[in-house]
Each structure stands twice: as structure tokens, then as C-alpha cells.
Amino acid sequence: xxxxxxxxxxxxxxxxxxxxxxxxxxxxxxxxxxxxxxxxxxxxxxxxxxxxxxxxxxxxxxxxxxxxxxxxxxxxxxxxxxxxxxxxxxxxxxxxxxxxxxxxxxxxxxxxxxxxxxxxxxxxxxxxxxxxxxxxxxxxxxxxxxxxxxxxxxxxxxxxxxxxxxxxxxxxxxxxxxxxxxxxxxxxxxxxxxxxxxxxxxxxxxxxxxxxxxxxxxxxxxxxxxxxxxxxxxxxxxxxxxxxxxxxxxxxxxxxxxxxxxxxxxxxxxxxxxxxxxxxxxxxxxxxxxxxxxxxxxxxxxxxxx
Length: 306
Ligand SMILES: C[S@@+](CC[C@H](N)C(=O)[O-])C[C@H]1O[C@@H](n2cnc3c(N)ncnc32)[C@H](O)[C@@H]1O
Prior knowledge:
By secondary structure, the chain is an alpha/beta fold. It has two domains: 3-36 and 183-268, no CATH class; 41-180 and 270-304, Vaccinia Virus protein VP39 (Rossmann fold, 3-Layer(aba) Sandwich), CATH 3.40.50. It has helices at 3-12, 24-34, 40-60, 74-83, 99-109, 153-166, 183-189, 196-212, 272-281, and strands spanning 64-68, 90-96, 116-122, 139-143, 172-178, 221-228, 233-240, 244-247, 253-256, 261-268, 284-291, 297-304. The chain is globular and about 60 Å long. Bound molecules: S-adenosylmethionine. Residues 19, 22, 27, 30, 34, 42, 69-71, 75, 96-98, 101, 124-126, 144-145, 147 line the site of S-adenosylmethionine.
């Protein structure tokens, strides 16, 4: 099935694939979200990276870095600077679906050292992981920013298992996981007062319209989020203000009723037990765990068991 067919089925099921949140504008808006007071995730994860950079680099002894869904690489820069204290040469690869994210990553890192070589790879970490060059050196894979939370259980295990399969014995994976906490704290992170999340959410319609020649009207939708207590996840929706018809280039039409909710993102929150089960089912072994004083967020350093 090609991407267009997949998207049509997805829209019929009232789901807009999360990856389409990230075009140039979406990546810029995501950065704005990261800088808001409400979005505790970025500053908490950054504080853990800062505190444990030395330990993470000593434990992984990475000779190269490979970051999946890098965004602007700001947190990874802290680890790169630590690694460069001991290494004469270091390669950093940023792998992201968004051209803007790759540009931001390059801008962040290009001036830090002549010993750092930067590679930018535009790709989809779901579809293209099997094709990446796994290299010969001891690699540290990074998957930060709670991006794993955007996957349901089955997708998370399948993604991590595929990663585990391509990891060499000496490679490590550093992954950032958002933990269960006060629901109001979580909810406000996805509903900032300045309205960046709302713009970020609605931008998905422009992305899909441009890429697939559809005619979603942004102003006919409102941004909303709920915390699904049974699944411990934020669900981000676009709710239709009116009854409307979406026209596809192949003349297909989809009717959207007033009040219909299109799911654009889930953001799962984990406890130790649920995340450990996912790692174990993905053939990953925990080597180190790092967290902040509030236990809001955790970083796990893992090896492949395969
Ligand atoms: C939640 S953001 C995290 C960004 C960064 N790692 C951080 O910690 O701030 C998710 C990142 O993954 C990228 N991304 C989303 N879906 C992707 C996909 N299917 N393949 C590759 N990158 C993707 C986005 O462009 C974005 O940079």
C-alpha cells in the first residue's frame, strides 16, 4: 500500500499520522513549545543530561552518535561536548523526517569543534530504519524528547525491536521517557497559554493538504487535548466545528460530522513497570537509569540482547 492509500484509510478512521505534524513550520513551532513554561519535558530531560553527561559518556564510550528524530539536537550537544573532551574525532548523524529539524541541528552543532563531523539524513524512522548504515564504531543511538510516547504499545515494541536488531553488541541506546505524574501538569504541557501547541496541531492540516492535495479547512477545526486515564496518555485532537466534506484528488470524499474528532497525536506516560516491559519485549537490556529529583522524566541507557 502506498503512502496516499495509507493516509486515506487513516483519515477514514479519524486519525492523522503524527509524523505530518513536522514540516518546516511544525518543527519551528515544536521548538517554541519546548521553550514554554508549561512544557516541563524539555527542561527536565536537559537537566538530567547535564547532570549525568559524564556518566553517560563513560558508560557508553561512544565513538559516534546517531540520533533518531533529532529535532534541534540541543540536548545532544551537551553529550557531544562531553565526548569531545576525550575524543579527537566524533561523528554525529541527525536522522529526521523534517528538513527544518536537520537544518536546526546543523546550525546548533556546526561551530562547536573541527573534530566533529556532522551528517544529516532525511528519513522516516519507521520505514527507513532497516536501510541505515550501522557503521563499525561503537555507536550511541539517541531517541530523546519522549518521542517513544507517540507510539502505541505494539508500535513501540516493533520500533525498538527493529532498532535492537541493527544495534551491534557494543552499541548503546539512550532513550528519554516521560513518567506518570500529576495529570494537570501533564495536560498543561500540551495546551500552552501562548497557543503554540494549537498552531502546531492545526498545521498538520496544511501539511497534509500540501502533500496530498486535500482541502481541509483549518478554521473549521478546534484544538483540544484529553488525558486518557486508562491508557495514561495525552490525546491531541482536531475537532470539527461543522459538518464538512473532504475531497480527495481521486474524487473520493470523506464526510466529517460536526463534533467529529481527528486524533493527531498520542503522548504516552509510563511508570517503571510499563516501560521495562516494553524494553524487555524489544530485546533491550537496561544498563543505567537516570532521573530528575521529581521523577518527572527518565533516561535509560540500553544494550541490545540480540
Ligand atoms: C517530539 S519531537 C523530539 C525532538 C527532539 N528529539 C527533542 O528531544 O526535542 C520528535 C522529532 O521526531 C521527528 N519525527 C517525527 N516522526 C518521524 C518519523 N516518522 N521519522 C523520522 N523523524 C520523525 C520530528 O521531526 C521531531 O524532530
